[in-house]
Here is the input.
Amino acid sequence: GAGVSQSPSNKVTEKGKDVELRCDPISGHTALYWYRQSLGQGLEFLIYFQGNSAPDKSGLPSDRFSAERTGGSVSTLTIQRTQQEDSAVYLCASSLPDWPGDEQFFGPGTRLTVL
Amino acid sequence: QKEVEQNSGPLSVPEGAIASLNCTYSDRGSQSFFWYRQYSGKSPELIMSIYSNGDKEDGRFTAQLNKASQYVSLLIRDSQPSDSATYLCAVANYGQNFVFGPGTRLSVLP
Here is the structure.
């Protein structure tokens, strides 16, 4: 079946502009995660949605970052007033609410470049 | 603060040797343990999941879990140059967020 998809694959923007990144999880996966990965660095957790529960926003680096998940499926990560330090690859992952079976599957990522 | 630790490497092994990757975690309540492989410029891909103490084998890969020691490892037998990548350890409690380690960079030398 289809995996996690993300769009756009690349985004170049100017400092101060807003950007929206989209994630389509695997069908039936109720958990959805956003991560950020700067060049040569590890995964930085941003936000986690699980079903209808309140999202875990503890990883969002500033109030310029927000995310929503509509209808329990597609998610959008929004970065307002982008800064050069926001340049990174933004990864989305999804998983089932099962145990065992809660493996995360990653999308291909969106490479964001802020000029 | 839940933590997952890994040696950053690089870990260099000759082709055909066994590569041993190690991971320790701080949360004793952790229930799910994963190894991901990430090639440069690509997203992480799942290699193994393990949920109970002991060994789990899948082809050339063996995951080992010791909950008492809060330790999980990945062995790669007959290492190939194509195994050269960064290996990420991840730990989770059911219904809670994953915690990823910083990754170990593996280099398999021809």
Summary: Chain A has a mean pLDDT of 94. The CA atoms of residues 78 and 109 of chain A lie 15 Å apart. The longest strand of chain A covers residues 88-95.
